[in-house]
Structures are given as structure tokens and as C-alpha cells.
Write a structure and sequence with these properties.
single chain, 382 residues, alpha+beta, five-stranded antiparallel β-sheet, 13 strands, globular
């Protein structure tokens, strides 16, 4: 029987197809890790091949963390803690791998069936000695987690902990872990002019402060109005944070606004009109109660500026009440002869809003246009 070259080729192709099928049945997986950059990753074992192994940075201090392969893994080898809330932690030792006062980019593939915590310990982020923590719920699917952080003064040790303690996930998995020095250029934001004065932002300068102003020593009583868009749903001050987590606040939001993932706290801001706000009568009431000074909330952790802000377009002149609330508070306060102050709470916005990346946190101006050509209420805003 004569075997032609074409028959040999077909036979070879058949063997290749059969081999691929068998590899699929046996759980073999193709390589699916492409580094962000050719070099510089402080994680020496990003593909989790050597878990647990202290030489490669992985630690297994407690719990049921295990290396997994096959269908439950993202690709090749992944790490999993499962079986119940806070049954284990995926830990990596970052001691000696990070520099102080340096910007880094964190990226990984994460799977969670509820809220999972990503904690950076001992890194001095936000200038604090406390842990920096993000909460992420990937809703039982593998998703990329990608964010930036800036170290401060480093502690004696630095650690990465990924677990569900104080959260709701019972299955947390990790793969393709990367922490690179950030190479993207810093974005310069035009700043509003600031009055010059005696003090500069150094401890030595602040040591000149001495005693509190005389008016403050005499003013034994003041009132602070912690009032902003977080008051609209009447579900607690941290609603803008927790409405992006699974649970009661998320359920309340979806019952009122719907489950479309492009909806978010901006819908609450749009509902907040402040139509019954009467600053003159409110501040007079405070004065009659004996207050000598009044403080207004200028920006809560929802990151909405309550004045005609030049920093960003998300402010109460453009959305919500469509009024400069801080200007209104100041006018009423000074008219009543009280001292006036403003409190800003925006330091937590960038970390507490991280879960919104799975919802409306990444919408741009282009997304504000409907397919029929009409515009959404937030058209023109990122």
C-alpha cells in the first residue's frame, strides 16, 4: 500500500489533535503569565510554583492555604484558602523587598466568592503605621486586581496578607502576583493658589505653633455639621464605601436603583438636591445654643467636593444640589459672628473606593452617551 505525503500529514495532525485532547482531560494547562515588565518584580515566584517556600517569599503561618492545579487554578499552579470565612491566609514576606517613599504597582489574578481582604502590612502607606487594606469581591470568577501604592516609613517587617478575615468570602485564590516599581509618569494636577503663612508642612515648623489661638481657648463649644451626600440614603456615614461590598448596603442600593453594574454612588449624589437646606436659620440655631464656632464638611470619603472646586468636576456646583454649599455655610456663619472651619475626609477615598472598579469606578465621559445618541445625567464627567 502506498502512503502518500498527504496521508502522512493527516496522520500527524490526528496525533496532534489527540494529544491536545488528552492533555485537556489530564488537566494540563498552557502558560498564561505575561509579566507587566521584563524585570523588576519584587515577587520572586509570581506563578506560585513554590508555595509554601520561605526562600521564595511565600509563608504559611496558619490556616489551610494550599497549592492547587487543574480546573480550580487560574493557570498552572495557584494558591487557595477555602472551607469557611477566615480559614487561612495567603501570605508573602515583603521584608527587604520594598524601598521607603516609593511608588509601586500591584497586580494579581484573584478569585473570591465574597469579600476578600488584600492587606499590605508595615509599608507606611498614607504616612501611617497601620495596615493598608483593600476589599475585593470577584463574584466567583478570576479577575485582575491592579492598583498603585506609595510606601512611607517602613516598619520592622513588611507583609502581604490575602484572606477573608472580617469579610464574607469562603474561597479565596491567588495567581500571577506582581509588585513592580511604578514607571508611569506622575500626573500633575493644577492646584488652587494657597495663602502663604508662618507655617510649612514640617514638624520643625509646626513646633513654632505654641498655644491655640486666643479665640479658640475662649470658645469652649462649637458645632460641626457632618452633612453631605452620604446623608441622602440615611444608611450610615460609610454607605458610599460599603454599598460596593456584598451585604446589606449593597442590597439596599440594588433594591432602590437596580443591579446594573454601571450604577453606583453617583446615583445617590444625583438624588441629593439639598432642597430644604437653610444655612442661615441653622447657624442661628447653633449660635443661640451657645456655639462660638462652626465647622462644615467639605469632602467626605465619597470624594464629592461641596464647593465650586477647581480640583475636579465632581462637585456640588455641577451635580446634586447644584450649589456652592461651603460658600453658603461660610456666609451664614460669618453673618452670625461665629468662627468658620471646613473639614476634609478625602484621604480614604482612593482605597475605600477600590471595590467600585467592579462597578462604575472605571466609567469615562464616553460611557455617558447612550446608544441612541441621548446623554446620561452625568454626561461630560469621568
Amino acid at each position: 500500500m502506498k502512503i502518500t505525503n498527504q496521508m502522512k500529514t493527516n496522520k500527524l495532525k490526528s496525533y496532534v489533535v489527540l494529544a491536545c485532547i488528552l492533555l485537556g482531560f489530564l488537566g494540563a494547562q498552557a502558560q498564561c503569565y505575561t509579566p507587566l515588565f521584563p524585570s523588576g518584580n519584587v515577587i520572586t515566584d509570581p506563578e506560585c510554583n513554590n508555595y509554601p517556600n520561605t526562600a521564595s517569599g511565600w509563608k504559611k503561618g496558619w490556616g489551610n492555604g494550599t497549592a492547587i492545579t487543574g480546573a480550580n487554578a487560574y493557570c498552572g499552579t495557584s494558591i487557595q484558602t477555602a472551607g469557611g470565612t477566615c480559614k487561612g491566609s495567603i501570605d508573602y514576606d515583603l521584608t527587604g523587598k520594598l524601598l521607603p517613599n516609593t511608588s509601586y504597582r500591584f497586580k494579581c489574578m484573584l478569585y473570591s466568592n465574597g469579600d476578600a481582604h488584600i492587606t499590605l502590612n508595615g509599608c507606611g502607606i498614607n504616612g501611617l503605621s497601620t495596615d493598608f487594606q483593600l476589599t475585593k469581591n470577584t463574584t466567583s470568577a478570576w479577575q485582575a486586581v491592579d492598583f498603585y501604592f506609595i510606601t512611607g516609613t517602613l516598619g520592622a517587617a513588611q507583609n502581604l496578607w490575602i484572606n477573608s478575615c472580617s469579610a464574607s468570602a469562603t474561597d479565596v485564590r491567588l495567581d500571577n502576583l506582581e509588585i513592580f516599581p511604578a514607571t508611569e509618569p506622575v500626573v500633575e494636577i493644577p492646584m488652587e493658589p494657597m495663602d502663604s503663612g508662618k507655617f510649612v508642612p514640617t514638624w520643625e515648623s509646626l513646633k513654632q505653633y505654641g498655644e491655640a489661638p486666643e479665640w479658640y481657648q475662649d470658645a469652649k463649644f462649637g458645632i460641626w455639621a457632618h452633612w453631605g451626600p452620604q446623608c441622602q440614603p440615611e444608611q450610615g456615614d460609610w454607605f458610599a464605601r460599603f454599598m460596593y461590598y456584598s451585604g446589606g448596603d449593597r442590597n439596599w442600593f440594588t433594591n432602590k436603583y437596580g443591579s446594573d453594574t454601571k450604577l453606583g454612588f453617583k446615583e445617590v449624589i444625583n438624588d441629593w438636591k439639598a432642597e430644604n437646606w437653610q444655612p442661615d436659620s441653622i447657624v442661628k440655631l447653633y449660635k443661640d445654643a451657645g456655639a462660638k464656632y462652626f465647622f462644615a464638611l467639605g469632602n467626605h470619603h465619597d470624594n464629592l467636593d461641596l464647593w465650586d472646586s477647581k480640583y475636579q468636576e465632581w462637585n456640588t456646583v455641577n451635580v446634586g444640589p447644584k450649589r456652592d454649599l461651603i460658600a453658603g455655610w461660610e456666609k451664614a456663619t460669618r453673618a452670625n459672628g461665629l468662627r468658620f472651619g471646613v473639614s476634609i475626609h478625602a484621604s480614604h477615598a482612593w482605597s475605600w473606593y477600590e471595590p467600585s472598579q467592579s462597578y462604575d469606578g472605571n466609567l469615562t465621559k464616553a460611557d455617558s452617551l447612550n446608544t441612541d445618541g441621548t446623554r446620561k445625567w452625568w454626561a461630560g464627567l469621568d
